[in-house]
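Worked problem 6 (solution included).
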Amino acid sequence: MTDHTSMPSFPTSLGTSDADHISLLGHDLATELMGKVSFGELAYWLVALRRPSAGELHVFESVLVALADHGFTPTAIAARITYLSAPDSIQGALAAGLLGGGSRFLGVTEDCGQFLAKTLAAHEGALPADEDGWNAMALGAIAEQRAAGKLVPGLGHPVHKNGDPRTPVLIRIAEDAGQKGPHLTLFEAIGRMSEQALGRPLPLNGAGVCGAALADIGLPPTLLRGFALLARAAGLLGQLAEEIRHPIANDIYMMVDRNAQYISPEHPTGT
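Solution. The predicted structure is:
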């Protein structure tokens, strides 16, 4: 007979179940959550262990929409190519796309949030009370990044050279929801001061603004890439559905394969 008093304990504040019930976040999943809580609200709640306010939820779900899909990015191409190779493994195709979320695509959301949080945490005294004060903090943050040989995350975009269309909309949504805090305020200042600090104006990209907005609604900067991946999972599923309807992955594969140029290993640079 098993002595249950000697069994190890594994604490959780998330989900448990027995023969008749599923409990999630202290609520009965079937009777108290299903049909009453949106997926976005639940995702926030699972991480923060509290329900978001109406304003926080509006910003959060706006961020998820902003990050869901951005066309034929490397993550989308990776998912489609993987599906071409293994159509029996939709999970593999989704995973391939998600694994591509790094410092150049998707990961900027977390990188920017962490950068802003670190800058704010290092600031001594009260936060600036006016635009000039925020501008000075932004200049200092940019200078510190440059001195360390690093880029400022969230500045610039490979496609939207004249401004990311998501940026002003997300900032307005946060303002209207009463959720614009120090992270977004500092990030705006970094955008304003980019020309003075770097010699040319660089737009604030949408992924960076998403990171600032998520940090302002109380989500941990160390988990922000997870929210970017949560959003992109929906986009990748859409990419795979489209790949099934209108396949292009084989064309991509064939274009690369048929245009491969052999280079002798004795002259790897082709010279």
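Discussion: Residues 136 and 189 are 9 Å apart (CA to CA).
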